[in-house]
Amino acid sequence: MLFSQAQVIRTLRCKNRNVPGVMGRLATLIGEEGAYMGEIKTISLGTNAVVRDIDVLVEDEAHFKRLLDKLKELKKDVQILEIRDEVLTLHRHGKIETKPRVPITTIHQLRRVYTPGVANVSRLIAQDGDRADKYTWIPLTVGIFTNGSRVLGLGNIGPLASLPVMEGKAALLSQLTGLNAVPILVNTRDPKEFVETVLRVEKGFGAIHLEDIEVPHCFEIEEKLIKALEKPVMHDDQHGTAVAALAAILSACRRVKVDIQKLSIGQVGLGAAGLAISKLLMGFTGNPVLATDLNEDACQRLRKAGGKIGKLDDVLSTCDLIVATTGVPGLIKKEKIRKGQIILALSNPVPEIEPQDALDAGAALAADGRSVNNLLGYPGIWRGALDCRAKRLTTPIYVAAAQAIAAQSPKDELLPNPLDVRVHANVARAVALAVTKEGLAKNPVEDDYLKNEASGKAPEESFLSKERWER
C-alpha cells in the first residue's frame, strides 16, 4: 500500500555547526519524535557551518509543530533558516500534460495530422471500429475514474480534491510503462450513475482503472462494468493491492522456507483491499481464508467467496499467516502473536502492529504498508493487458502478476523497488502471457514471446521492444 495521503512533507533548511555529532543528534531527535527523514541535500559547506535541506515526513500539522518544538533542544548547534512546502510547488498546474507524438510545424504536417488527411483515417474507423486500435491512442490509454469518496487517509473528499491523487497515478503509469492515463472525475456517489457515466465515455480508452471509491459501491461498480465491457476493468484499491500483498506473501514464504499451501491464512479487515486479498489468496491456494470484520455485509461477501468468519482472537490464535487491513493502529497486541507467524500489518500511516514488535514477540517475518506498495502492480498489469488487448482480467492473471513481482525481490528485501521499470516490464510480460493462456487476448502473444523480446524481434509497436525499455 502507498503512504497515506494524509501525511505531510516539509523541507527544513538547517544551518548546523560543522563539528562531529551535530547531524547525528539532529537525525536522532527527528526519529525520536516519530518523523521520517527523506532527501538530504547539502546547500553549502563552510569551515564553521553546514547548510542542508532536509525533507521530513510527519503525520499531520500538529505532529510537525511537535517536531519543531523538539528541535529547539539543539538551538546551540542547529538553526532552522527556512521551512518550505515544496510539495505545493511541485503540484503547481498539475503533474501531467498532453503532448503530440508527431511534429506539427509546417502546413504539410498540418494537412496530414488534421484536415484534410485525418478524414481518411476517420472513414476507415467508421467502416471498421477495430481499426481504432491501430490509428488512435486507445491501445495505449487508460481511463482513471473516481468520485473521490474513499481516498487513502483522507476519506470522502470528493472528485475535485482527489484530482492531484489521480494525476499522480497517471504520471507514474506513464513513467513506468509509457502508457497514457486520463483522470476522469465522476461527480456522483450513486453507483448506477457512476456506471452510466463510464459507459458513455469508455470508447476512448483501452482499459478502465477505478480508484478511491467507497465500499460497498466499489464492488457493484466494478462488477457491472466488467459484465458490460469487453475490455479490462480493475479497481486498483482491490486488485492492485491484492497483487502486491500476494507478492509479499510469496516472497515471505520463500524467505522463511515455508509452503504457502500448508499455511492457515487469516485476514483482519474485509474492506475493499482485505476482501480482494482474501479472494486472491483463496483462488491461488484453493484453501479458505479465516477472516474477521465488524461489518456483517463484508463477512457475507467473504462467505459467498468460500471463506470463513471468526473473531479476532480466533484468527490470531489459529492462523500461520496474518494479513491486516483495518486502518486501526495498534489493533494487534504483542501478546497475541505466536512464534513463527508471518504478519503483514498493512494499514498506513500506523499499522495494526509495528513489525519490530511482532518480531520481538516471535513472528518469523513481519512487514507493514511501507514495504507492500500497490505501485508494484497496476502499471505492469495495464501494460501487459493492453499489449495483448485483454478482454478482461481474472484471478490467474493477477496471480501471474504477483509471482512476477515476487520473483524479482532482492534477497534482503521483501519486494523489489517499485520505481524500477524492469520490474514493471517483467510483470507486463507475465500478464500478457497469462491473458493469452486464459484465452482472453484479442491479440494473443506467442509461446516464444519472451525469446523474441530478448532478441529485439518484438514488434516495433509493442511496449516490449528494446527501443521502449532500454532508456
Query: Count of DSSP helices?
Result: 19
Distance between the termini: 28 Å
Strand tally, please? 14
Q: Main β-sheet, in a few words?
A: 6 strands, parallel
The helix fraction, in percent, is 40-55%
User: Roughly what is the average pLDDT, rounded to an integer?
Assistant: 91
Output the radius of gyration: 24 Å
Structural class: alpha/beta
Shape: globular
Strand content of the residues, in percent? 15-25%
Spatially, the strands of the biggest sheet line up as 11-10-9-12-13-14
Which residues sit in consecutive blocks of at least 5 with pLDDT less than 50? 451-471
Structure characterization notes:
By secondary structure, this protein is an alpha/beta fold. It is built from 19 helices and 14 strands. The strands form three sheets. A six-stranded parallel sheet has the order 11-10-9-12-13-14, with helices on both faces. A four-stranded antiparallel sheet has the order 2-3-1-4. Strands 6-5-7-8 form a four-stranded parallel sheet, with helices on both faces. The chain is globular and about 75 Å long. Residues about 450-470 have low confidence and may be disordered.
